[in-house]
Each structure stands twice: as C-alpha cells, then as structure tokens.
Amino acid sequence: MSLIVKICGLSEPETLEAALDAGAEMVGLVFFAPSPRNVDLAHAAELAARARGRAEIAALTVDADARLMDAIAEQVRPDWFQLHGAETPEAAAAIRETYDTRVMKAIAVAARADLGKVAPYASVVDRILFDARAPKDATRPGGLGVPFDWNILEGLDLAKPFVLSGGLNMGNLAQAVRIARPHGVDVSSGVERALGVKDANMIRAFIGAARGAEASLRTATANAG
After folding, report:
1. CA separation for the pair 183, 161 (Å, rounded)
2. Which residue ranges form the domains of the chain, and what is each CATH number?
3. Span 149-175, pLDDT tens digits
C-alpha cells in the first residue's frame, strides 16, 4: 500500500495548489474557530472545488454541532469528516451514516495505554488518526507541532488503516514512518513558515520526503524478507 500524504489546515489557493501538484492524496480544511487555520464555509467551498477529483477532501471538526455539520456537508461536500473532539463511537457512526461520508477519528496519544481508546471506534470509522495529546492549557486539540513517542505504535496491528500525525516535519518524517509504519501521514504546522501560514516550498519538500521514506521502508522490508 502506498503511503497516503495529507496536508491539513490549508486555507489559501496557492498552497492548496502546491499540495495538489506535488501529489498529496488528501487535503484538510479546518472548521474550528479557535484554530489559526479555521476557514469559513464560503472560502472552504471554493478550496474544495479546486481540490475535487484531484485529492480527497477532509473536513476537520471538533465536537461540531449538527448545524455546522449540515452546512459543511451541503456546501463543502467533503469526502471525509475528521473528528478531533470527544465524539463518542456512537456519534462517529451516526455522522458516517447521516452524511454518507467516510469518517476518520483522531486519538490523542501520550502513552501505550491510550491505544485502549481505539477498539470502540475501530468497527464504526474508516480510519484512525494518532495525534499527540495536547497540553492541558491548549486551546485546540491538534496542529501544535508536538510529536509523541512513535515507539508506542511499533508493531501495532489494527484492522483499520491508521494515519500518523503530531509534530511531523521533513527532519523527522523518515524515522516516524520507519518506526510506526503508518498507512498515511498528516502534517500541518510542519509545513508552515508562521502559525497558520502554509509554505508552498515546505509542502513540496515534505511530500518529497514522504515518498523517500516510503521507498526506504519498502527497500528495508524487501531486504529483511
């Protein structure tokens, strides 16, 4: 399986185009007011229209109410809802059914014990995303540029594909992929030149690094066999 690359928190056409042209399989739009990457519905719809058919579109929400979810589904028409709040497995399943879209649930990780949260979601969502647990005083659950110990995921065998997130950048990506062996990687702050401001060159470089990490892992796996 090819490594899926997701660029999250995009908010401008130029950096969206950079991600698409460089071959990102997924692009993420944030619908959470406290985030510096938050986009309004009208602008998000314009960005989604550019991306449609070129990459899968993920709408990131945090305990969003039905009114916002309805509006996102109608105006943006995402391929995925990416849930980053305290949504229960029942709520995740209801979102999947109500909007007839795929669902990715973020699980905050700081210790091996946190993996115990996965099982209730595994049967009702399409993908799990592992992110670093936010500090207690944080105003948002992700996009903080902080990695967690990837060794926690080493040897993890899930029935569902999982995505690795949390503090990834060009410098640590290869190591993260080698240890965790995810199905996909998700980056936001790691391709920003300032908080909430994506950089086209950093996006292209990250995607290039992801392809290199994928190739290295395949070589290592083949040699081990």
Report:
1. 6
2. 4-224 (3.20.20.70)
3. 999 998 888 888 999 999 999 999 999
